Amino acid sequence: ILWNHEHIDQKINFDALLRFSHITPLTQQYLEKIYASFALYVFVAAAGAYVHATGLLSALGSLGLMIWLMAIPHKEKRLGLLTGFAFLTGVGLGPALELCIAVSPSVLPTAFMSTAMIFTCFSLSTLYPRCQSHIFLGGILISVMSLMFLSSLGNLFFGSIWLFQANLYMGLVVMCGFVLFDTHLIDEKDYIWHCADLFLDFVTLFRKLRMILALDEKDKKKEKK
């Protein structure tokens, strides 16, 4: 009891919490470049969602831009392609966001803030030296995603809502793992590709949370009726 009391009385040292002295100045500059670009692409995606059009065309366009991005080494062109990819990704999100607003206007801001909080926490946790052992996650995450894909295909025939929800929540956990994994690889890729990885992680995490919150709101409305 005495230990618990002393533990509660301890003040949180936010300076120590946010201190990254183990990261070299060069890596800090690299991080700043990545997350500044990442924030820009999230904003561009939001703009795309605001002026959304046909979801299929945007999906094909974003896929084409990603393939093009993989095929060329020129840095300036790749930045432009990644910007276009982020915009079309936002365009593709538009129709689904409208459906969420129809269910409840609170779903989108809650999903976005929750995504930002989860993404930030998992990203920061990877930057500490004691947490630099996430490289093994890659094989596990890909294996779990393969199993989820197979179960989703099987669920096309079974139509189980329980399996659908299990895949949804498992997908949320997997995406948190990918945030850890992709942040861990920060020194092994150029910043454009790393920014693309983080952007895709953020968007997928947002999609999962948006769907979970929307389904929860629909269930609440059914219970009230």
Automatic annotation (TrEMBL):
Membrane-crossing segments per the record: 38-69, 81-104, 110-128, 135-154, 160-181
Lineage top rank: taxon: Eukaryota
GO cellular component: mitochondrial membrane
UniProt main location, coarse: membrane
InterPro entries: Bax_inhibitor_1-related
Gene Ontology MF: a single term: enzyme binding
GO biological process, one term: negative regulation of apoptotic signaling pathway
Compartments (UniProt record): Membrane
Bilayer topology: Multi-pass membrane protein
Protein keywords: Membrane, Transmembrane, Transmembrane helix
Pfam families for this protein: Bax1-I (PF01027)
Family named by the database record: Belongs to the BI1 family.
Protein name (record): Bax inhibitor 1
Organism: Nannospalax galili (Northern Israeli blind subterranean mole rat)
